[in-house]
Each structure stands twice: as C-alpha cells, then as structure tokens.
Amino acid sequence: MKKVAVYPGSFDPVTNGHVDIIQRALKIFDKLIVLVAYNPDKKSLFTVEERMAIIKDVIGNKNLAVDCYTGLLVDYVRKSEANIVIRGMRALSDFENEFQMALMNRNLNRDMEIVFLMTDYRWLYTSSRLIKEVAGLGGDVNGLVPELVYRKLQEKYAADKKETSKRKRS
Q1: For the chain, which residues make up each domain, given as ranges?
Q2: Phi then psi for 69, rounded to 5 degrees?
C-alpha cells in the first residue's frame, strides 16, 4: 500500500521553509500532494494557479502532485488516495493553533493521521505573511524564498508600484 500524504497551506508565496518540509516529506512518503488553499475571502498576492505552477517548478519531483481545494481538508483527504496530513511547524508559537486544528480534523475523520514536521532552524522565523510584508516594503528576501519566488515577488511589487504611481498622477 502506497503511503500518500497531503500538505495543505496557502503557500502565498512558498518559502524555503515550505520547500524544506516538502523535500523531507517526499523522502518519507511515496507520494505527496501539496494542497493549495483557496479562500475567496482572503486577498492573496499570487493566484491559486500561480502558486500551483511555482510549487511544481520549484520542486520538480515525479512523486509530487499539486492541487487546490476549497472546503474542509478532511473532505479532500477522504476523496483523495491519502490518509496522512503533513503540517509544518516553525516554533512553539505554532503549536497551539496546529494542535487545535489537528484535534478538530481527527474528530471529523478518525482514519486521518496528522504528522508534524519541524522546519529546519534556518527557516524558523520566516512566514509567507512576513515575506510579503518585507518584500512589499522593498526589503531583501533573497535566500528566504526560492529564486523563482524571489523574481516573481520583485515583478509583483514592481507592477504594484507602477500602478500606484499611475493612480497618483491621475
């Protein structure tokens, strides 16, 4: 029986911490599905399609599938061939929220196992939210995200600056 795991998240954008978790999970499981969350109520920097393409390009592993889903994680896991969910943790501050979500998910689907992986110590302080904030204010996030993501962030924020400048002149 193949061991298939799902690694859900927003990945907006994918960071080196995410990449670390993905690469390590691929060593443990036969197949990994990175599940990009779609939340219509949340404004994302990258579209779901952009995030999915970036993850595929950055990882490039035949045992990796990238998908998106809106709805309950337990429903996606049930309909997929997986029964394991990967959750990445950076620090103790992540534990309470992750533990609460894990207990709720186990309550909804007793057949689902949740596996926590700690990211490498180099990425303990990085988060997608912080990366976007720093990059949006012109800070250098090179080395904290894959090179492709770094370039895409520069493109996004350069376009935003042009648009803002254009609106101010109007």
Answers
A1: 4-125
A2: -160, 145
pLDDT along the chain (170 residues), means of 10: 93 97 97 91 90 97 95 92 91 82 90 92 90 94 97 88 59
State how far the Cα of 56 lies from the Cα of 58, in Å rounded to an integer: 6
User: Collapsing DSSP states into helix, strand and coil, what is residue 77?
Assistant: helix
Q: Which has the closest alpha carbon to 5: 61, 103, 89, 84?
A: 84
The helix (H) or strand (E) run that includes residue 8 is: strand 4-9
For residue 98, the tally of other CB atoms under 10 A from its CB is 15
Residue with tokens 């520069």: 154
Separation of alpha carbons 41 and 36, rounded Å: 15
The model's pTM is: 0.89
Beta-sheet strands, E only, within 12-170: 31-37, 64-69, 84-89, 113-118
Q: Is cis: bond before 13, omega within 30 of 0?
A: yes
Could you tell me which CATH class the domain 4-125 is placed in?
alpha beta
- Report whether 105 contacts 114 (CB < 8 A): yes
Catalytic residues: 18, 42, 90, 128
